[in-house]
Amino acid sequence: MGTGLGNRVVLPAQHRRSVRARVRDRLSNPDYDIVNRIYQNVGTGTHTGIEATFSLGLGEHWQLTGSANWYENVIDAAETTLLFPVVRPFSVPRTEDDTWDMKLNSLLQLPNGIEAQLSVVFYAAKPIAQGFEAARSSIDLGFKKPILNDRAELVLSITDLFNKFGIRHEIEGDGFDAVYENFYESQVVTVGVTYDF
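The chain above was modelled as a monomer; its predicted structure follows.
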């Protein structure tokens, strides 16, 4: 831990091309007062970006690591025919948008063998088919302490401390607007013991 792991920065670039990229569309049904969520293959898409990762030893007892990504997603315009729930033409315009995310992880050695870890994750708002996904973040906290003459560890972890990691989509469809929220159980407190035999 600490300076023994060295300090470093890495800057990789990335590029991916997808033929018939898959998107999730929401369409109103002309026969019913409902909105269908449909997965559809559309035009060619690309994902291009750059990532910066780092690792810093801040003294003998503190290690800080992290990464930041910036990327651009492009999906070409496409026209197709939807077959569900009724046959109808469907088109998507070309989209070209960029976004970013970052992660930080701090690991600190405390007295009496206690190890504390703080993790922060942030995803900026990003465009999706027919709208955008709102920014979201999570702060996680964990502690680990050796017990029973170092034959076991007592572990406490808290995820999504401020309950900000739920997914929220704001959709502007043809003839409707919608908000989709998925507040899955991201806020969890765990206490456990690991024991070596």
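The radius of gyration is 23 Å.
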